[in-house]
């Protein structure tokens, strides 16, 4: 079994992504999670480029890491300096990481157009920078920027840069497909050639996904002998992103007959959790279709597939989802036919016949609702309420009479928001008002105020997430602001989490519907008398 | 130059994706676009499985296609029938497509667990189904479901199924990696073996992306001689999706020295447009980081990268973006340093020095605003207004005094929404009210009502899209409904489109801010007197 080093650059190259901006505390939180996962190296940033990154290196020292080494990134010294008096190199030393990764230019075009120095001078920059840092660190990696493009443009010069880095003592020569345009066959051919020229060097690979080949290229390099893979969680990174470690790691560990090991034993099961943690911390919506760790990665919708998967999951799943910390999902949809509903019914304890009229009615209702924008695959609690109503459950915990929200900006620029709710519980009318942070929060507070006296268990419940999705793109007549809106509300108590849905052309009415479902679900779930026992 | 057939299955396998449900008119609109792009085959659906798909085949006949052939999908006949009396096969005939694609079982596990018939019987199903359809269609393709898994589990049986399909007259044997778990090296080895056994057969490839290898695997198959690629626009499809045609096509056309042709001459430039069209029609948010066609595919954020790209785009772009109908974007962000702002300034006609105090002030303002949730990379119109204000532009087209929105549900369940706006134009106070579809639309209408008398040009402007994003996940104290909200509004007139941004804890206040920016931008853009001419 061969150990492949995992070098995570989520905190440096990952933050180059459109939409990603991480604060220094965010970076620390992610680093601690990466250490827990057991990646070998965590690249924390480029101390020479900004304060946030410098703060990271100072702060991370206060934490005890179990597995990962901290790497700092920087460039070869500026052409106008020598290594010893270069600010960027000295900031790397000041940051005092475990490892330094230095990048240099490989492609003659870049030496001319970006560095604007003679080709020979660039070789000196590479050599002198590495030679200066070498005695100060136990490990130094050299990132050969644009290696593959450089090789294709001027093979001899590209090789000369690598040889310089090798001579100057870099431990690993990391071959970068910086622009992401290289095909796997080229990766193979070029590394094969390289091994002839630099037989005793150790190689790493750093790819970008501009041709949707970053994962394939990384694995191709490993097959050619590369020992280190640089990538990011979820493939975050500039343009189309970096090589996605969440796919590379399970591919190497699960698809090559145990030839490769990337993470410490037993850590692969944390992959889905860390993927979600990083997307949440970056404040990005997780990519549903993401291989291995995505919410849809083991989701089955087609009726035929669902019935096969129910018999044997292997029929439509390439691995056991729990192996990467994910799980199977059965989607409710008009394409799915009755088998999905039967599957859910079973989960709720009902063994129904596929020709049962309740099943057919429910299918019709789902189709109608989906056609106007409801979506039950993520809002299972709303589905469950609908299912039990179809089974004859008819209890009403409260009866809404009316609500209102007023949202205004006053002359002095101050906001004023107020919600009122009027409802009946048993025979009693409750009429409440509340002012919260925003309209939905105000409505939520007014609703709770009305219900607490009757249902104190609602105090344990909290709203954890609130998602708004505008459904149709354009309504020309009235402007896009008249589009339909779907609201998903995620709620939680000490035992469980549930999601409910509401749809309307108006965000408040959609939110209200999801809010009421959420409260009803909590009351339903905790209600010992919701249903006469089946023995009755 | 070798022609590779492109077989699009967005309308069939694509619709198996989580979150995708297409109506029959949607399917027709997408088919017409695919024909415009020039794919060779459009798989419209599975007539035996549902009404929507049957309606598609009836409807598409009313349209004149220029390039594409229409394919219908179906399975081998049911084991209890013979081919002639099988409903599914006869529905394929009734649908009368140009081409039929029949799928059958390759993997012995599936024959036993899903079909539940003896292995020998499955060979008969394959043969008899194809032999029955063969004389009725000029082209028939055979999709060997789970081919690679089947080959690995029981090579001889997998080959026997293919040989049966070949004997029965299938024109192309399409090798499916249905579960998406196969590595490129296996694709290569298995097809090489296959060619020895079935030397005179023509092969196609159909892959899924569960290992993030669907694009690499498709291309690997082409390198081994496959002539047809089955995939979907944007890689939509079940679980992690199908092979992404938006990456495969440009990879083959641009990365192999002109060896392969997929689309008619000059059509590749339509790729970004069709990708966006399909995601809009499917009502899915486009994937920013999507290779070639994504909004971020040629977006540059890092200050170093931006300055290099400004000198020579080749330094950080693997192809010319316009070749696939995309374009370069420079992102505004706290990581980007001053060079991005200088780049935008240049675009607006200002040649600023990087130490100009206006540049530094603007950078500080952007950073502050981004830290509370503003995002200018997509809201360039809001940035432009901010930029010109920093340059000394101070005109105020109107002065807002106050607004209010009331949103209520009455006792009878009816919604009542009303917005009021009070503002001053010149010395005159306008106080208006309107009731529209939803709160933002009502506010928009009240605002326009107040401004039309002074600025009739606003009548040409419309709001085209409205996006809401809840920014921070959780605020435990008050429930998730108190999170911050970012609203992006896209507006258009006859000449141009622009996007503005607003941020608040309250969706209405955020919408109002974006709305006011949008109107201001329209007035600014059309105003000949906004600025004393530079010669003054």
Automatic annotation (TrEMBL), chains A, B:
It is an enzyme of class 2 (transferase). GO terms for molecular function: (R)-citramalate synthase activity; 2-isopropylmalate synthase activity. Pathway: Amino-acid biosynthesis; L-isoleucine biosynthesis; 2-oxobutanoate from pyruvate: step 1/3. The keyword Amino-acid biosynthesis applies. Coiled coil: none annotated. Belongs to the alpha-IPM synthase/homocitrate synthase family. PANTHER family: (R)-CITRAMALATE SYNTHASE, ALPHA-IPM SYNTHASE/HOMOCITRATE SYNTHASE. Keywords: Amino-acid biosynthesis, Branched-chain amino acid biosynthesis, Isoleucine biosynthesis, Transferase. Residues 4-269 form the Pyruvate carboxyltransferase domain. InterPro entries: 2-isopropylmalate_synth_dimer, AIPM/Hcit_synth_CS, Aldolase_TIM, Citramal_synthase, LeuA/HCS_post-cat, LeuA_allosteric_dom_sf, PYR_CT. The keyword Transferase applies. This is Citramalate synthase. It comes from the Bacteria. GO terms for biological process: isoleucine biosynthetic process; L-leucine biosynthetic process. PROSITE patterns: AIPM_HOMOCIT_SYNTH_1, PYR_CT. Pfam families: HCS_D2, HMGL-like, LeuA_dimer.
């Amino acid at each position: 079994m061969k150990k492949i080093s995992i070098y995570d650059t989520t905190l440096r190259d990952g933050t180059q992504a459109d939409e990603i901006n991480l604060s220094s505390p965010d970076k620390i939180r992610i680093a601690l999670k990466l250490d827990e996962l057991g990646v070998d190296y965590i690249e924390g940033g480029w101390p020479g480029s900004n304060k946030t990154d410098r703060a990271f290196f100072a702060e991370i020292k206060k934490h005890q890491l179990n597995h990962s080494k901290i790497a700092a990134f920087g460039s070869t010294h500026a052409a106008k300096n020598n290594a010893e008096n270069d600010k960027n190199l000295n900031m790397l030393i000041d940051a005092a990481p475990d490892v330094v990764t230095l990048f240099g230019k490989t492609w003659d075009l870049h030496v001319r157009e970006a560095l604007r120095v003679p080709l020979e001078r660039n070789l000196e920059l590479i050599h002198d920078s590495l030679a200066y840092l070498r005695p100060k660190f136990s490990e130094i990696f050299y990132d050969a920027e644009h290696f593959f493009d450089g090789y294709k443009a001027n093979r001899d010069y590209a090789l000369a840069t690598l040889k310089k880095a090798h001579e100057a003592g870099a431990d690993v020569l990391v071959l970068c497909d910086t622009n992401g345009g290289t095909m796997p066959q080229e990766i193979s051919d070029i590394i094969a050639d390289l091994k002839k020229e630099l037989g005793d060097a150790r190689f790493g690979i750093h790819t970008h996904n501009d041709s949707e080949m970053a994962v394939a290229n990384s694995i191709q390099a490993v097959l050619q002998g590369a020992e280190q893979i640089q990538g990011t969680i979820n493939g975050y990174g500039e343009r189309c992103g970096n090589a996605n470690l969440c796919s590379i790691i399970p591919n190497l560990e699960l698809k090559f007959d145990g030839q490769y090991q990337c993470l410490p034993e037993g850590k692969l099961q944390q992959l889905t959790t860390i993927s979600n943690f990083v997307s949440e911390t970056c404040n990005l919506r997780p990519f549903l279709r993401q291989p291995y760790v995505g919410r849809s990665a083991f989701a089955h919708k087609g009726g035929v597939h669902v019935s096969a998967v129910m018999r044997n999951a292997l029929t439509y799943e390439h691995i056991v989802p729990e192996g990467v910390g994910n799980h199977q999902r059965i989607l409710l949809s008009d394409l799915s036919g009755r088998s999905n509903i039967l599957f859910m019914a079973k989960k709720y304890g009902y063994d129904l016949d596929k020709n049962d009229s309740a099943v057919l009615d429910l299918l019709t209702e789902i189709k109608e609702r989906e056609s106007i924008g409801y979506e039950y695959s993520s809002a299972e609690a709303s589905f469950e309420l609908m299912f039990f109503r179809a089974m004859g459950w008819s209890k009403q915990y409260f009866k809404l009479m009316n609500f209102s929200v007023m949202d205004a900006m006053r002359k002095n620029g101050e906001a004023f928001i107020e919600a009122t709710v009027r409802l009946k519980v048993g025979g009693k009318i409750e009429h409440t008002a509340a002012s919260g942070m925003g309209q939905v929060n105000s409505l939520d507070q007014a609703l709770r105020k009305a219900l607490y006296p009757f249902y104190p268990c609602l105090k344990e419940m909290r709203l954890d997430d609130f998602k708004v999705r505008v459904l149709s793109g354009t309504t020309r007549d009235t402007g896009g602001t008249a589009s339909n809106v779907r609201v998903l509300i995620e709620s939680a108590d000490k035992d469980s989490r549930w999601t409910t849905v509401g749809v309307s052309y108006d965000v408040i009415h959609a939110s209200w519907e999801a809010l009421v479902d959420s409260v009803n679900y909590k009351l339903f779930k905790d209600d010992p008398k919701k249903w006469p026992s089946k023995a009755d």
